[in-house]
Specification:
Shape: flat
Structural class: mainly alpha
Strand content: 5-15%
Strand order of the largest sheet: 1-2-3
Number of strands: 7
Oligomer: single chain
């Protein structure tokens, strides 16, 4: 679109097949995107399978380590108890050896009293041995029973853990099998859709080649048409010249038809023949296919003329569409202009007590002209050039707000917009923003007291010996 608002260019009707090809191409691109998304999902699923398999192997290794640890504890307990039993058996052997020594001593003793003492010692030793054996059997039984219970509990716990682990392994294996099935289905689908995608690529490549060939053919045909036009002009000229010569010859034949043969000398006849040959040479040879060539060129000319008529009709259709678009564009523009002008009038009346107006330089074709801002001071209208800098700045803000409030924003940010305003105009701007804040929020960067006093919340930066800090003041509560 040009700056003037006129749309240039267009697409002939015969380009519609090309558009259809482009739409088909877009559909194929969408199809390709869907296939790529599915491929991404399958790759993500494969990644999850690998992660689950890795977690399964880690968990399996942890269980194997735990079982080995339990086996080591169990083996250590058995070794420990075997050592205790060996120690007790050693003590029993020591006591039996002591008993044997005492028995031998008794047999070798001749003193009856000593024998009696020895017998008492033997009885005492037997009692001690019996007591030790009883205690040993009692303690060993209790310990073995406790150990047995503990081992049985550990065995039960290990069996439960093993059962739970086997169930978990079976569950994971089933999940892996299920995922493998899904993966196989997806792979088959990918294979099938990859073939479709390859076919689409082949078709796309073929379409591009055909498109290039069409462009080459169009170029050739364009050159042929230009050549035919040139030939048509040339043969038309030749035909006209031939027809003219034919008329001259007929005229000349008619002229000599009634003339009697005049006898002349040989020299005169030869001279006349030379003159006639000279005239014939000047006329040139007659192309016997001129009429046939003319008919061919005429057909080509008619075909080209028909194409020109078609293009002319298409051009007229496009120009009609452009005219409709321009009318619609003007209608929308004028509607927008009227709404913005209405907002501007209300704002200038509130600010200045006088009504401002937005005047188009060219109402017939608003896109070919500019826009003037005019203020009515009493009965006299004054342009913006005759106003002060502060009034111009205030009018500019009113104009900007008029545009924005045609399609309002939820909030506005102003950065020292009042810098060119005096105190009186600053108050007017503050009152305007206050009235507009009913439907929008305003964030204003300012050093102007009139603007600050009209705000609801003020934020300031102050500095002391500890550095800078932010101060917030709720002016709404204070008022």
């Amino acid at each position: 679109m040009e700056n003037s608002g006129v749309i240039t260019g267009g697409v002939p009707v015969k380009v519609i097949p090309q558009r259809l090809d482009e739409e088909d191409l877009e559909k194929k691109k969408e199809r390709r995107k869907l296939l790529l998304d599915r491929l991404y999902e399958i790759k993500e699923m494969e990644s999850n399978i690998r992660r689950i398999s890795a977690e399964y192997e880690i968990r399996k290794k942890e269980i194997e380590i735990e079982i080995e640890s339990i086996d080591r504890i169990f083996d250590y307990s058995i070794v420990e108890k075997e050592a205790d039993l060996e120690e007790i058996e050693r003590k029993i052997l020591d006591l039996q050896g002591e008993k044997e020594r005492i028995r031998i001593a008794i047999e070798n003793s001749e003193d009856e009293k000593e024998r009696s003492v020895i017998d008492q010692n033997i009885l005492q030793l037997k009692a001690e041995l019996s007591s030790i054996e009883t205690k040993l059997k009692s303690n060993e039984g209790i310990m073995l029973q406790e150990r047995l219970k503990k081992l049985e509990a550990e065995e039960y716990e290990i069996k439960n853990k093993n059962k739970s682990i086997n169930e978990e392994i079976n569950k994971i294996e089933n999940e892996i099998k299920e995922i493998d099935k899904k993966l196989k289905v997806k792979e088959e689908k990918i294979k099938s859709e990859s073939e479709i995608l390859e076919n689409l690529y082949s078709e796309l490549k073929k379409m591009n080649e055909n498109f290039d060939n069409y462009n080459i053919e169009i170029g050739k045909n364009t050159r042929k048409i230009e050549k035919l036009k040139e030939d048509l002009i040339r043969y038309t000229t030749l035909k006209e010249e031939a027809q003219k010569k034919l008329v001259d010859l007929k005229y000349e034949a008619d002229f000599y038809k009634d003339i009697e043969v005049i006898e002349a000398s040989r020299e005169e006849i030869e001279r006349r023949i030379i003159e006639i040959e000279k005239e014939l040479n000047e006329i040139g040879s007659v192309n016997l296919r001129a009429v046939e060539l003319y008919d061919e060129k005429l057909r080509s000319y008619n075909e080209i003329k028909e194409k020109v008529n078609t293009l002319t009709n298409e051009k007229n259709s496009i120009l009609k569409i452009i005219e409709e678009i321009n009318m619609k564009k003007k209608e929308i523009f004028m509607k927008t202009y009227e709404e913005i002008n209405k907002n501007f009038k209300n704002m200038t009346k509130n600010l200045f007590g006088n009504e401002g107006n937005l005047v188009l330089e060219n109402e017939e074709d608003p896109f070919e002209g500019g826009l003037d801002i005019v203020m009515k001071l009493g009965k006299k209208e004054s342009s913006i050039e005759s106003m002060s800098g502060g009034e111009k700045a205030l009018l500019t803000l009113a104009f900007i707000f008029s545009i924005h409030f045609f399609k309002p924003s939820p909030f506005y940010i102003l950065d020292e917009a009042e810098s060119a305003l005096d105190k009186e105009n600053s108050k007017k701007l503050s009152q305007l923003i206050k009235s507009l804040s009913q439907n929008a929020q305003f964030i204003i960067v300012t050093h102007n007291d009139a603007i600050v006093s009209g705000s609801e919340v003020a934020l300031g930066i102050t500095r002391d010996k500890n550095g800078s800090k932010l101060i917030s003041l709720d002016l709404k509560k204070n008022t």
